[in-house]
Each structure stands twice: as structure tokens, then as C-alpha cells.
Specification:
Elements lengths: L3 E5 L11 E8 L5 H7 L7 E4 L5 E2 L4 E8 L4 E6 L3 E7 L4 H11 L23 E2 L2 E2 L4 E8 L5 E5 L20 E11 L11 H7 L7 H15 L17 E2 L1 H10 L5 E4 L2 E4 L1 H7 L6 E2 L2 E3 L7 E3 L5 H19 L8 E2 L1
Parallel strand pairs: 2-5, 3-5, 4-19
Antiparallel strand pairs: 1-2, 6-7, 7-12, 8-9, 10-11, 10-12, 13-15, 14-15, 16-17, 17-18
Bound molecules: flavin-adenine dinucleotide and uridine-diphosphate-2(N-acetylglucosaminyl) butyric acid (EPU).
Amino acid sequence: MNLIENRSLKDCNTFGIEVNARYFAEITREEEVVPLLSSLKPDQRPLLILGDGSNILFTDDFPGTVIRINTKGIAVLNDDSEAVILRVSAGEEWDEVVEYCVEQGWGGIENLSLIPGRMGAAPIQNIGAYGVELKEVLLELEAIHLETGEPRTFKREECRFGYRESIFKTTLRGHYLILHVTLKLSKKPQLNLEYGSIRKELDQAGNSSPTLHDVREVVCRIRRSKLPDPSVNGNAGSFFRNPVIRSDQFELLKKQYPSVISYPDPNGVKLAAAWLIEQCNWKGKRTGDAGVHPDQPLVLVNYGNATGQEILDLAALIRQSVLSRFGILLEPEVNIF
Ligand code: FAD
Ligand code: EPU
């Protein structure tokens, strides 16, 4: 396996942060994983597994080995009149998987259209958008332990999925490399049109019997209008999670701020972090090349040559304002290294 030394990671993270990996390897065949892990010397660790780097903020050079997963393949494991079961390699681009499924008429992930990143990263934070989360279609995933090289299959329940969360972001953080994800998609899909402006857009177009393809189109259009394109201005999508607070806490907040934007949540009430940040007057603010997006303040932006530390300093100031004003601590969604 070819280890590259001191490789720039600028083209491997959508924030476009200029840092180096001490060592860098690209995996294109799954058989390469275990030999690579066993060949690494102690000074070539720690390891960082990378997809498209669309949910990462690098604040410094990475001192060990970055392993980018580029394995490809979608295999049909089962196909009947109701559903299809797919085993997808970790290096597949997520949105290409969505597009393929929509073309085949297999439903379940059309609302997750246009989320950047690769298949292997999708379970890490249980990607979600427009009322759907990956956990709804994921049956199991196959992973390799980074220290022992042992394979392990995690059933859906073992992944402990939550909102932007899984066991791979908490207790098993940094311990496994995900190689394959198995998804179950429906041939008789129930479209989920209730979130945000999906139904409104379809109604405006006079479309009363939308197809999977129509839903994908609408989601892509809404996303393009709301979120900055990382190839124009570096970003990693929402920098923070939307905070979930207790219902009694929410009642007090609502009395003080009747316009607060909220959603029901199994654990209390979810607040729109974008609203909280906007109220603290951060929208469109910029220090050097680190900025808060002018339309969607939950997205922090690298306008050119910001360092990861500058983005992190900006995030810390935003957190402090929201905490002082509302008593709510925003948690980063982005993985910080
Ligand atoms: P990376 O950023 O490369 O990695 C993310 C984390 O996963 C890291 O900790 C990494 O070590 C780990 N990892 C990656 N691959 C593997 C693997 N094979 N095995 C083990 N660990 C691995 N997310 C949403 O949920 N919903 C959205 O709507 C959404 N919109 C976005 C919009 C934009 C414009 C951007 C830039 C990002 C958005 N995101 C969204 C975040 C991001 O797209 C997802 O988190 C995506 O799953 C990250 O994939 P990646 O391949 O880029 O992962
Ligand atoms: N809003 C404001 N001020 C603004 C912008 C938005 O008050 O300047 C309000 C909007 O009016 C809206 C609310 O905030 O009522 C929520 O905004 P939006 O619909 O844009 O969604 P979000 O909560 O900011 C979440 C996810 C996104 C996902 C969308 C759609 C999180 C952290 N973010 O964003 O995911 O695409 O919903 O489902 O949950 C990501 O995870 O990276 C990501 C982009």
C-alpha cells in the first residue's frame, strides 16, 4: 500500500482548509484495509477515516495517517415485489446512490437527495433532511476495528442512532472503519411530503400525484436555494445541531420570545439554531475570511484562506452569544480535528 507523506488535505475537505496529513492512503479495494492496518507502525497512528470531508473542520495538521475510502459497488442482495435490499460500498457517493435508487423506482431516501459525502460516513451522524433519516432504511453495516482489524456487523439497533448521532460519534468514536452499508428500499414507497416547503412547491407546480423523481427534484431545488455550494464558498453544512430543550424550559423561552422557531421532538422541543444565531445578530458577519452565511446563519463559511482555528474561534463567539442571551449551549455537528 502506497503511503504518501505530508499530503495537503485542502482538496479533501469542503471547508477548503489548508492542512497536511503526516501520512495519507487511499483505499480502492476492500481487501486492502486489513493489510494496511497491520502494516502501520505506532508512529503512523492515530488514524482518521475520510470520505469527502464534508462534515469535518481541520484545525491543525493531522499527525498520523488519513485513510480515504474510495471503494465502489452496489449489490442487490434481495429483490421481491415489496422491497429491495442493497449492500453499498463505503466509497460510493451518497447522492449517486440516491439518484440510482430514484431511477429504479426504489423509495425511502429521495428526501435525502443532494446531501454531500460518501456512503460510509452517512451512518456516522445518521444523515437527515426533510423529515427523513438514514436509520429508517439502514438494516446493518459492516465495519473493521481499527486496532485489531476484526470485522464486525452492526445491526440497526446496535448503531444507537439519534438526531445527528450514532454510536460511532459517541462511545465508538474513531474505533471503526465502515466498509459496507445495507439498505432496504421500498417498491411501494410512501412519499414524505410534509416537511418544510416540499408540498407547497409541488402544489404550486400543480403536481398532485408526485413521483420519487419529482420529490428528488423539489428537494434538490430547495437545497440549492438555501445552502451555499462548497465549491464556491467553503463550508460543511450546518455547523451546529439544532438544540433540543425540555418542554418546561421551552415554555419559559416562548413567553419571553414568542417568535422562537421550534419543532416537536421525542425528547422535548427542538429549536431552530439558525433563528437563535440570527437573534444574536451574527447573520452575514465576517472576520477576515471566516464568516456566518448571510442567508443561513447555521452555516459557517470559509471565504478564501481562513484557517480552521479562525472558523473555530468564530463558532466559539457564536456559542457564547447564544448561551448568554438564551441560556442554550449549541453543540457542533461538524467533526473537529
Ligand atoms: P467526512 O466529512 O469525510 O467524515 C465525517 C465523519 O465520518 C468523520 O468523523 C470521519 O472520520 C467519519 N468517517 C467518514 N467515512 C467513514 C468510514 N467509511 N468509516 C468510519 N468513519 C468514517 N448532513 C446531514 O445530515 N443533512 C444534511 O442535510 C446535510 N447537508 C449538508 C450540506 C452541505 C452543503 C454540506 C457541505 C454538508 C452537509 N451535511 C449534511 C453534512 C455531510 O454531508 C454529512 O455529514 C456526510 O455524511 C459527510 O460525508 P463525508 O463522506 O463527507 O464524511
Ligand atoms: N431561519 C431563521 N433565520 C435564518 C435562516 C433560517 O430563523 O436566517 C429559520 C427558518 O425560517 C426555518 C428554520 O430556521 O424556520 C430552519 O431552517 P432550515 O429549514 O433552513 O433548516 P435548518 O434547521 O437550519 C436542518 C438541518 C439541515 C437540513 C435541513 C432540512 C440540522 C443541524 N440541520 O437545517 O442539515 O438539510 O434542516 O431538513 O439539523 C446539515 O446537517 O449539515 C444540514 C444542512
